[in-house]
Write a structure and sequence with these properties.
- By secondary structure, the chain is α+β, with helices and mostly antiparallel strands.
- 30% of the residues lie in helices and 21% in strands.
- The strands form 4 sheets. Strands 9-8-7-6-10 form a 5-stranded antiparallel sheet, with no helix packed on it. Strands 11, 12, 13 and 14 form a 4-stranded antiparallel sheet that branches.
- Helix 4 crosses helix 5 and helix 4 packs across helix 7.
- The two termini are 35 Å apart.
- The C terminus is likely disordered.
- One of its GO terms (molecular function) is nucleic acid binding.
- This is Integrase catalytic domain-containing protein.
- It comes from Arundo donax (Giant reed).
Amino acid sequence: MDFIEGLPKSEGYNAILVVADRFTKYSHFIPLKHPFTAHHVARVVLDNVVKLHGLPRSIVTDKDRIFLSTFWKELFKLYETKLTMSTAYHPQTDGQTERVNPCLEMYLRCAVQHSPKKWKSWLALAEFWYNTTFHTSLRCSPFKALYGHDPNFGALSDITTATPQLVTDLVAEREAQSLALKEQLAKAQNRMKVQADRHRTNREFHVGDQVLLKLQPYAQVSVVNRPFPKLAYKYFGPYRVLKRIGIAAYQLDLPSDSLVHPVFHVSQLKPFTPDYTPVYADLPKLVDLDAGQLEPERVLDRRLVKKGNCAVPQVLVKWTRLPEASATWEDYYVVQKRFPMALAWGQASSGGGGGVTPVTTIQAT
């Protein structure tokens, strides 16, 4: 089960409940009106699905608030119906309805492109079209898989001059529309399949591995706060793999204050490769600090250098008895500890707006 929302109002309806049978692929498209509750959804399922097919043994849904409600869980618990939820941000778990949804949307888009508010009047035809279309996985249509025979499309007799013009126009319009829809849908379905197969890769992780997690824009802010998600990194972490769930999902060790479900599909993860090698813009110029009485005379500049997962403060030191051209970048705490009485530390924290302090960051790629 899944919802299609964000539709314009058509005869008062603005959402569709999609119910698909995993065995025969037979689907029902039920219009809904916002706001709807778990009680209302259960009622329409009874009126449109259960009365025709009986109670299901299991139901696969996403984590919509309707399907997570106590009423929904307790209702199907009484009927011994197993409820299964898809993993976070991986709609393929509920792949049956997620595959039906684009087909239904394409049909309605082609049928009511110029008059979107009439989609409700096409919904019954969309359901009939989908259930009577040949499926390669079934080698037949869902209608035949369910009932054992092909549907009766009706035999149109020859249109004569006695046929009312209104009937003639309606039949001609429906036939032309059906041909156009079949051509467009076939092209779109093939294009989406090719794109999905092109980007599919095999990944596998083990318990204890460090992985980076792909966070969705405008969501999952309890894991990492991003003020400007459009410009933020896509992957955050690393996070440790705690457990493997099934064959394609993993439980991660997220921060304790995270409100996101810790189980993610493997497509949202990628291996974390630590890099401890600091990168400098210029090659460092080595200076023998033991030659003569050299001490830090003045701090010329400051910067932060990433070492592992931390940002280490460094200062550009001008040494006594050496020209500024021989100034070197040194770790602030290391050189301060070696020369605690140097005059440079007096002005290091007053020249450019504050002392040098370490900053701990979360590595992101």
